């Protein structure tokens, strides 16, 4: 997985900005997938009711695509929450 940063968007509203994102290309599962690492104290509210929903992600390098949240992992005592997603559209260069 490659580490970058990106923004999570819903209905043209930026919900999260400049969060760490791990991206992976794996043709056996999805064309691309990844994981958001969110700070438990400041971004935990975002994860409520998140699984199964579709959002858009804009990566720092300008690529843009739709994502589908698959799972939210919140381990007791951890300082981060992991949000696993798969690409729901091709990851394209921004226009």
Q: Could you please describe the fold and organization of this structure?
A:
This protein is mainly beta and 95 residues long. It is built from 1 helix and 6 strands, in the order E-E-E-H-E-E-E. The protein has one helix at residues 40-43, and strands at residues 2-10, 13-26, 30-39, 54-59, 64-73, 80-87. The chain has a 6-stranded antiparallel β-barrel with strand order 1-2-3-6-5-4.
β-strand amount: over 45%
Number of helices, counting only DSSP H or I runs of 4 residues or more: 1
**What is the helix content?**
under 10%
In total, the number of strands is 6
Unreliable spans: none
Calculate Rg over CA atoms.
12 Å
Query: Biggest β-sheet, characterized?
Result: 6 strands, antiparallel, barrel
Q: What overall form do the CA principal axes indicate?
A: globular
Mean pLDDT: 83
State the separation between the terminal residues, measured CA to CA: 25 Å
- Give helix and strand order, one letter per element, not per position: EEEHEEE
Task: Provide the spatial order of strands within the biggest beta sheet.
Answer: 1-2-3-6-5-4
């Amino acid at each position: 997985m490659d580490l970058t940063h990106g923004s999570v968007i819903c209905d043209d509203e930026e919900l999260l900005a400049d969060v760490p994102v791990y991206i992976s290309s794996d043709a056996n599962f999805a064309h691309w997938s990844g994981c958001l690492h969110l700070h438990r104290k400041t971004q935990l509210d975002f994860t409520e009711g998140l699984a199964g929903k579709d959002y858009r992600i804009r990566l720092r390098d300008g690529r843009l695509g739709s994502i589908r949240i698959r799972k939210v992992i919140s381990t007791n005592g951890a300082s981060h929450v992991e949000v696993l997603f798969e690409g729901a559209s091709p990851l394209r260069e921004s226009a």
